[in-house]
Every structure is written in C-alpha cells, then in structure tokens.
Design goal:
Radius of gyration of chain A: 12 Å
Organism (chain A): Mesorhizobium hungaricum
InterPro entries (chain A): ACP-like_sf, PP-bd_ACP
Largest interface: A-B, 27 and 30 residues
Number of strands of chain B: 17
Strand content of chain B: 15-25%
Helix content of chain B: 40-55%
Order of helices and strands of chain A: HHHH
Shape of chain B: globular
Largest sheet of chain A: none
Largest sheet of chain B: 6 strands, antiparallel
Structural class of chain B: alpha+beta
Number of helices of chain B: 28
Strand order of the largest sheet of chain B: 2-3-1-9-8-10
Number of helices of chain A: 4
Oligomer: heterodimer
CATH class of chain A: Mainly Alpha
Number of domains of chain A: 1
Radius of gyration of chain B: 24 Å
Protein name (chain A): Acyl carrier protein
Structural class of chain A: mainly alpha
Strand content of chain A: under 5%
CATH architecture of chain A: Orthogonal Bundle
Helix content of chain A: 40-55%
Chain lengths: 84, 636
C-alpha cells in the first residue's frame, strides 16, 4: 500500500515539478523546498493533488513541512490519514 | 535622446567608413528619426541619429566645437545645461548653438574629464579630442542611456544598441552562457558582460579612455552610503526633499517640445506629475496603462490622480493578446532574454505617447530604489526580525501581509512561510542576504537548462560573481543600504532602466526623464537614516510625508502595488501563433540551451493552467524570450 502511494507521489513530482526529467535525483528523504522543487504555489498544487487522488481533505494546519516536504513525509502523512 | 555609434582604430578602410557608419546608424533609426549625421577622420568615425528635443534647429550631430578640436556624438539630455551655459558664457565662452551638446564640448574643453561631475543629466557620448588624439566614451551615473562596445582586431566599435554593432562585418552574435546564467539568477547580466559573447557594456558611471595606444575603463562615479555608525538625522529632511524634487522635476521639463508624464496610479509618478503640473499649469498631458486583469490594473487610481490635477489624460489598455503579439518585438529591442513580460505593456504605453505627438515623458522610476519602496527591503527586514526568534509561530505570518497579491502564500502555515523566506537566514553577514530568497527562487528556473549547458557552466555561481563586484566599504553600510545598493547598481540599470525603460521608450522614439535620479536626490537619499526610508514596515516613509498636499491621501496611503503584467497567464489566455513552433521539441532541441521534453511539458502545463508558480512562470517567460532571442539574433 505504502509502495503504491510512494509510486503515485513520485510520479506526480516527476511530472509536475521536474517536468519528466528523470535524470534529477529524488531520494525519498530529499527536501522539496531546500532543493527548489516546489515553492508556495507548488505546495498548493501538491495539496490539491493529494486531496483529489487520495480523496481526503488536507486541513490548513496540516500543510506543514513535517507532513509534505519530502516523498517519505508525504507517504507517511497520506498513510496516517488513510488509517485514521 | 538619440542613437550614437562609431569606431576608433585603423581597421576600417577609408572607402568603407561612410557605408559602415551608415549601416550602424540605420540600425538605430528608431532612436532618432529626426536627423542623422556622420563624421570621419583618420582612424575615427562617428555617427548619430537624432531625436530633436533641445536646440531643434541647430543641434545637428556629430558636433564640432568652434576650433574643430573636439567632436562629439551624444545621446541624452543635460538638464542643468542652462546654468552651465550661463556660467561658461560669463567666463568668456561663445556659443554657436542653443543645444546642450555644445555645453558638453565647452565644459570638456575647460575641465577635461572632470566635466562629467558637473553634468546633471542622462547621457552616453563619444568625444574625439583631435589635439590629444584621445577618444572618450562616457556614460551617466545610473545607466539611463546605454552604450556597448566590441573589438575587431585593434579597432574599437561602439553603439547605443548591440544591433548596430552586429552590422559591422566580423562582429557576430554568439551567446555567452554565463550571462544567461546571470539572467536566470539575478534578472540581469552583470555589466560589462552582455548576453552576446565578445560584446561589452560600458557600465553605468564609467568612462573609457583610449589614447596613445592604451585603453582604460574606469568608474568616474559610483553609488555610496555612509558607514552604519555615521548616519545623521536631518531635522528639515522633508522640506529639503520637497525642494529637491521640485527642482529636479522643473529642470526635466526643459525642452523645445512639450513634455508629458506617465501616471501609474502609485505614489511616485503621481508626485512627479503633481510637481510637473504645477510647473507648467494647464500644459501637462499624462499617460497611463490599464490591464483587463484586476490584479494588475490601477486605472481607478490613475483616474483619481488625473482628475485631481485636471490634466489632459490618455490611457491605453494592454490585453493578453497584446502581450503575446508584442513580445517578439520586445525581445528584439531589449536584445536579451527577460524573465517577465512587464516591458511589453510599457512599449504600448510609449506608442501612445508617440501617437499623441510627444517625444518626452517624465516617469517615477528610481523612487523605489532610493527611498526603499520595494517589498524586498521589507522582506529582508522581516527575515532578520524572524531570525531573532526562529521558534516564533507568529512572526512568519507577517510574510503574508507583505505579499497580499500572491495567492499562493495565503494558505501557508508559519512553518512553510519560514522555510520559503528562510534562504540564507543562517548567514546574516552575507552581503547578498537581502536578495538570497529572490536569487534562489529565480535560479530554480535553471532546472530547465539542457545537460550540455549545465556541463558548460559547471560550478559557475552568478551570485559569487556579483558578491565579488561589491565595493570595499559595502560591509560597513546599514543592511538596508546594502540592499538598496544591490537594487540601484544592478537591477535598476540592468533591467528597470533598460528593458522596461530606454528600450521600450526608444522603440517608439520617446525619451524618458527620471526626476528621482537627479544626482542631488541620489546623494540626499543615500545619506538619510534608514528609518526615514523604511519606517517599521512603512516603505518610502519620507516620500509619503513630502507628498502630502500634492497627492490625494488615498494614493499616498494605498498599499504598494508593484508594477506587474500578466506573464504566462497572458500566453495561456491568448497563445500567439509563433508559440507552438518556438517551443517545439525540434526548435528547442536545435537551440541546445534547454531540456526540450521538459519545456514541452512546461508549455502544456502553462497553457492548461495559466499563471502557476513563481518558478514555472519565470522559467516559461525566460525560455520563450531566450528562444525568441536565438531566433532574432543567432539563427538569421
């Protein structure tokens, strides 16, 4: 399950923030902001994607780097939300 | 305001001189539609395209002095020429014309190169001193008027615009990849570098001296600030500012043709227009730009100011369709890639001025740099404030107040805001501290650079090159003054005054005049205590005080709205015909500068969604303009 989420998230990031450039490294723990993959609008794009793809509501208070700033954190966040 | 060009050296055969100079002048015809002239002598050629504004009947150039010892080809205006002329006449000098050009010749004859310090104006000129066999190229303090040069063998060629240099056989257009990196990081190439390899810009406030086989380029002026501990409070500063602004505006109304004024709806141009309207009662015409998009449009404020002044007001609307349609021409005039479409509407505005028969307009440019109007100054102050209590969850929320026009920030948590604006926060002594987040977010657009371009650039760091250019006393200045220096010395000449200023005005034969860039005001503003400029988070504090009684209170107190135009949003709303081919994988791949498949995806995303993230927007306009630049200058 977590692997499916991870594959979905990675595909979204590659397509939307790296524009298909798979030569770019994307380790699971890599910060999306520190490595200039997303900016403030990018975060909202990501939130919009998560809400639509995983059919869940991302609360404003949940839009924090601890939940969304790397592939691993997003996977963990989505997994926790689904479990709850 | 005109176009100048010429050469110095033995690389031009006498029979080729006139055709070569004519070709250079023709490339500058838009800058000077009223007259043209050529001067040649052994190893020297000068040409001139004239836009007649002062001394209409007798200002023909290149101009010789009375003894035929000095020859000048000059672009610009010396606004204190009346006082200088009177002083020179009182000293026994005799004038043959009414022009400001002749004033420079006399002044140089009397003072040599020191004459530059006497000139209150915007200028770029080539002066040939036949007795000393000395060529002088000089450029005004802030870089209002452009001047470029290139060598072919031992012969130096120079011109107001690069397109004139490209008419010289043997001077070819080639891309400088480091300049491209600079544009995609700093918004501008760092003078003397230009996007054309082998073609240099004479930096603002510099002169070039060629004599006895030696070439020397040196600064004759540079922006400076007092040491942080030496800043003095001025009790009468508001009154002094008013008086200086009044005089700076008054002398910029000197012309033998009518002078108009831009009216953006903001404080700066409103104040200048008010002072101008007072100086020429019933005689000022104002010009404004409107947009269909609400977030860019300031028509309401423009109308309010025009009604207050009772002037004859003209406005033009710029649509999404206009931006895409005009953009190739913008790149041809600007002669380099740009990251915003903002120059395009300004080209439409200068066309409006031209269509109403005016050749000269006042603008409010320079106030944001001198009096700390830009958000980046407030942002840097807030970042330092937050950095003192990094755990605070309240302080980062102030960033949302700073950028109410950026919808992407509204839903962000304090943690994210701290991260977005936190670039370089751990290095408060970094000379580029104020600009790190901007440079970083702009630089993220380099994601789209092709592998081969990235390999060529290697570890090159444009910000390191910028930092290495800062003056020795820079570290001793107040942080606000450091940030102001970065704006006034690099972005102002490199982008605002050139891409949005000179090039967009001269494209339609219109001369811009900038009262805020009067050297007396530059010195005055630099010496002001930082809190008289940025008072808490209130920008342009002293200017707002000076504007009271001249500008309606709602305009003084309205939140600052930076001049912006729709970027990718415009291309999404009305994709121009050329876009598909320009950004096709084939064309982009052939250009070799960008990752073609990634650009294809970016284009699809932009056209699907319109305005997107800062990075995507920057990348999209940067790529479109770079591809247009390649198409205009390299592949033809």
């Amino acid at each position: 399950m977590a692997d499916d989420i991870k594959a979905t998230i990675r595909a979204f990031i590659f397509e939307n923030f790296l524009f298909g450039d798979e030569s770019q490294p994307l380790p699971d723990e890599m910060s999306l902001i520190d490595n200039d993959l997303v900016d403030s609008t990018g975060i909202l794009e990501l939130v919009g994607f998560i809400e639509k793809r995983f059919e869940m509501k991302v609360e404003d208070r949940e839009i924090v780097p601890a939940n969304l700033d790397s592939v691993a954190r997003i996977v963990g966040y989505v997994g926790r939300k689904q479990a709850s | 305001m005109c176009g100048i060009a010429g050469y110095f050296g033995d690389g031009v055969a006498p029979a080729d001189a006139v055709p070569l100079l004519s070709g250079m002048a023709d490339a500058l015809a838009h800058r000077g539609p009223d007259d043209s002239g050529i001067y040649t002598d052994r190893d020297i050629g000068l040409t001139h395209r004239r836009l007649s504004i002062v001394g209409l009947a007798d200002g023909h150039q290149p101009m010789l002095d009375g003894s035929d010892n000095l020859v000048i080809s000059y672009n610009g205006e010396i606004f204190n020429y009346v006082e200088l002329r009177a002083r020179l006449i009182a000293g026994g000098r005799r004038f043959r014309t009414q022009s400001d050009t002749e004033v420079i010749l006399h002044l140089y004859d009397e003072m040599g190169l020191d004459c530059l310090h006497e000139l209150n104006g915007d200028f770029a000129f080539a002066l040939w001193d036949t007795k000393l066999r000395r060529m002088v190229l000089a450029r005004d303090r802030m870089g209002v008027r452009p001047l470029f040069h290139a060598k072919r063998g031992d012969t130096l060629f120079f011109a107001s615009e690069i397109k004139a240099l490209l008419t010289v056989p043997g001077i070819a257009a080639e891309l400088d990849p480091y300049a491209l990196d600079q544009i995609f990081t700093l918004w501008t190439p760092l003078a003397p570098r230009t996007i054309f390899r082998g073609i240099s810009e004479l930096p603002p406030g510099h002169l070039m001296l060629i004599e006895r086989g030696r070439t020397e380029i040196r600064p004759w002026w540079r922006q400076s600030f007092p040491d942080a501990g030496d800043v003095q409070h001025k009790p009468d500063a508001v009154e002094e500012l008013r008086a200086l602004l009044d005089d700076a505006t008054r002398i910029r109304l000197r012309a033998d043709v009518p002078v108009g004024s831009y009216l953006s709806g903001g404080l700066d141009s409103s104040l200048i227009s008010a002072l101008a309207a007072r100086a020429v009662p019933g005689n000022l015409r104002t010009f404004s730009l409107g947009f269909d998009t609400q977030e860019h449009d300031e028509s309401r404020w423009q109308a309010m100011m025009a009604a207050t002044l009772g002037v004859e007001h003209h406005a033009v609307r710029c649509t999404a369709n206009d931006i895409g349609r005009l953009f190739p021409d913008v790149v041809r005039h600007v002669e380099r890639p740009i990251l915003r479409t903002a120059p395009a509407p300004l080209g439409k505005l200068s066309a409006l001025v031209h269509d109403h028969g005016l050749k000269t307009v006042l603008t409010g440019e320079g106030a944001d740099e001198l009096f700390a109007g830009y958000d980046i100054f407030r942002e840097a102050k807030l970042r330092r404030f937050r950095g003192r209590q990094p755990q605070s969850r309240l302080r980062p929320l102030l960033f949302q107040r700073l950028y109410p026009y950026l919808p992407g920030l509204k839903r962000q948590s304090p943690e994210y805001l701290a991260k977005f604006f936190g670039a370089g926060d751990d290095k408060i002594d970094d000379p580029l501290y104020s600009h790190r987040p901007r440079f970083r977010s702009t630089g993220s657009a380099k994601l789209f650079f092709s592998t081969s371009l990235k390999e060529q650039l290697g570890t090159y760091d444009a910000t390191a090159e910028l930092a290495a250019m800062l003056p020795a006393d820079f570290p001793r200045w107040h942080p606000l003054h450091q940030a102001q220096y970065l704006e006034t010395s690099f972005l102002l000449p490199g982008y605002i005054l050139s891409a949005q200023g000179d090039r967009m005005m001269m494209a339609n034969g219109v001369e811009g005049r900038f009262p805020f860039l009067d050297p007396r005001l530059i010195d005055f503003a630099a010496a002001l205590p930082p809190d008289m400029k940025l008072h808490g988070l209130r920008e342009k504090h002293i200017l707002k005080q000076a504007a009271k009684g001249l500008v309606p209170e709602p305009i003084i107190e309205r939140p600052k709205q930076p001049y912006r135009a729709p970027d990718s949003q415009a291309f999404a709303a009305a994709p121009p015909d050329y876009l598909e081919d320009l950004l096709s994988e084939k064309t982009v791949g052939k250009g070799g500068l960008f990752n073609a498949p990634a650009v294809e995806k970016l284009k699809s995303k932009m056209l699907r969604q319109g305005a997107s993230s800062f990075r995507d927007d920057t990348a999209f306009i940067g790529i479109v303009s770079t591809q247009l630049w390649l198409d205009t200058f390299l592949t033809r």
